Amino acid sequence: MRYQITGKQIDVGEALQTHVQTELDAMLGKYAGRPTDATVVFSKSAHEFVCETVVHLSTGLNATAKAHATEIYAAFDACCEKMDKQLRRYKRRLKDHHKDRTEPVELFGASSYILASEVDTHDDEPESLQPIIVAEMETKIPSLTVGEAVMQMELAGLPVLVFRNDKKDGVNVVYRREDGNIGWIDP
């Protein structure tokens, strides 16, 4: 497994890197069969250290966790606990409700745009109905079942996930509703 352990304006020493690799290996060995790589980023926010971890699983899904603490090791340990809980739930769901995916998730290319929000101090009509594109990027749309899409959304901590439905071969959306439930859009 490949590790990328970095710090944003923080020096990540050899001892911390060894601790991260040892703990992630132990935790991932319990739940994830063949994780491909892990990215761990440490940063500082005021007086707290922040640890963000992303683990790419061999099934194509990503597990993401983020934690804050006053000590850098405590921030990583809290992040590792969150990841452990997510992967335990993921494995239980796979075992209980879904068949194991035999092939990796197929990804399709798509364009992603960021539109400027127009902050208008007047109650006038906008000058143009065409939005201003601030950024244009490439993104990947995974080919998943609805259950896998919900798991991916929860593992990554996303509010919305656009995916290609394996069963119906169309683009679908799952999202977290304000009442805590999951919504599914199947056009």
Automatic annotation (TrEMBL):
InterPro entries: HPF/YfiA_ribosome-assoc (IPR050574), HPF_long/plastid (IPR034694), RHF-like (IPR036567), RHF/RaiA (IPR003489), Ribosom_S30AE_C (IPR032528), Ribosom_S30AE_C_sf (IPR038416). CDD domains: RaiA (cd00552). Keywords: Cytoplasm, Translation regulation. Its main location: cytoplasm. One of its GO terms (molecular function) is ribosomal small subunit binding. One of its GO terms (cellular component) is cytosolic small ribosomal subunit. Residues 130-183 form the Sigma 54 modulation/S30EA ribosomal protein C-terminal domain. SUPFAM superfamilies: Ribosome binding protein Y (YfiA homologue). It is found in: Cytoplasm. It comes from the Bacteria. GO terms for biological process: negative regulation of translational elongation. Required for dimerization of active 70S ribosomes into 100S ribosomes in stationary phase; 100S ribosomes are translationally inactive and sometimes present during exponential growth. Interacts with 100S ribosomes. Belongs to the HPF/YfiA ribosome-associated protein family. Long HPF subfamily. This is Ribosome hibernation promoting factor. It comes from Marivita cryptomonadis.
